[in-house]
């Protein structure tokens, strides 16, 4: 997806930070396809150390994500044959993520409006939250956006879904155009 590619590109900007791993959070990851796409893009970008947290509030979705087993229907778009061969195992009736890809990803049960659950997470270089905020009330959305601010490292980026924006939200994030997407940046200094 464009957002996943933008996230991987954004993560590449900070890959050199003190030898620490690049941390990416896929908030509202559902069944994990986005987290695995991010991992593939980071691997293909040559970023040697990274961690991805995929969070959701559905235990059933997270069970699917941890298994990394999908029906062929999950792969609706075109996937380069090289990527198919390298990152997936095709078996009768299903597609499995290569076990090596899973080593950098952990899936967590997190409700974005649960302050304690979010506080237990580390800080991130990139947060990807697509099509989640649109389902929240304005006060809940404001709390979550504030929480994203606190969970981002300086110069970190927040990427939202196409139908979401921070245009009418009072926030210190700065709009940052990327190659094929828009992101919101947490400036290093206010």
Topology of helices and strands:
Elements: H1 2-13, E1 22-27, H2 33-44, E2 50-56, H3 59-67, E3 69-70, H4 81-87, E4 88-91, E5 94-97, H5 99-102, E6 105-109, H6 115-119, E7 124-129, H7 138-151, E8 152-160, E9 174-177, E10 182-185
Parallel strand pairs: 1-2, 1-7, 2-6, 7-8
Antiparallel strand pairs: 3-5, 4-5, 8-10, 9-10
Percentage of residues in DSSP E strands: 25-35%
The global form is globular
Q: Report how far the terminal alpha carbons are from each other.
A: 31 Å
How many separate helices?
A: 7
Helix content: 25-40%
**SSE succession:** HEHEHEHEEHEHEHEEE
Low-confidence stretches: none
Biggest sheet, spatial arrangement of strands: 6-2-1-7-8-10-9
Describe this structure in words.
The structure is a single chain. This protein has 190 residues and is an alpha/beta fold. It is 33% helix and 27% strand. The protein contains 7 helices and 10 strands. It has helices spanning 2-13, 33-44, 59-67, 81-87, 99-102, 115-119, 138-151, and strands at 22-27, 50-56, 69-70, 88-91, 94-97, 105-109, 124-129, 152-160, 174-177, 182-185. The protein has a 7-stranded mixed sheet. The longest helix has 14 residues, at 138-151. It is globular, with a radius of gyration of 16 Å. The two termini are 31 Å apart. The relative contact order is 0.18. The mean pLDDT is 88.
């Amino acid at each position: 997806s464009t957002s996943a590619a933008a996230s991987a590109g954004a993560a590449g900007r900070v890959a050199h930070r003190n030898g620490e791993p690049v941390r990416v959070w896929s908030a509202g990851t559902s069944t994990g396809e986005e987290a695995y796409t991010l991992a593939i893009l980071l691997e293909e970008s040559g970023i040697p150390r990274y961690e991805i947290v995929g969070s959701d509030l559905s235990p059933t979705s997270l069970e699917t994500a941890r298994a990394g087993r999908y029906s062929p229907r999950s792969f609706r778009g075109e996937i380069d044959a090289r990527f198919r061969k390298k990152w997936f195992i095709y078996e009768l009736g299903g597609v499995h993520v290569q076990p090596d890809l899973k080593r950098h990803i952990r899936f967590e049960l997190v409700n974005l409006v649960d302050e304690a659950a979010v506080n237990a997470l580390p800080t991130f270089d990139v947060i990807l939250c697509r099509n989640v905020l649109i389902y929240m009330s304005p006060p809940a959305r404001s709390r979550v956006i504030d929480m994203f601010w606190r969970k981002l490292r300086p110069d970190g980026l927040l990427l939202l879904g196409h139908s979401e924006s921070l245009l009418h939200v009072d926030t210190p994030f700065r709009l940052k155009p990327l190659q094929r997407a828009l992101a919101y940046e947490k400036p290093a200094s206010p």
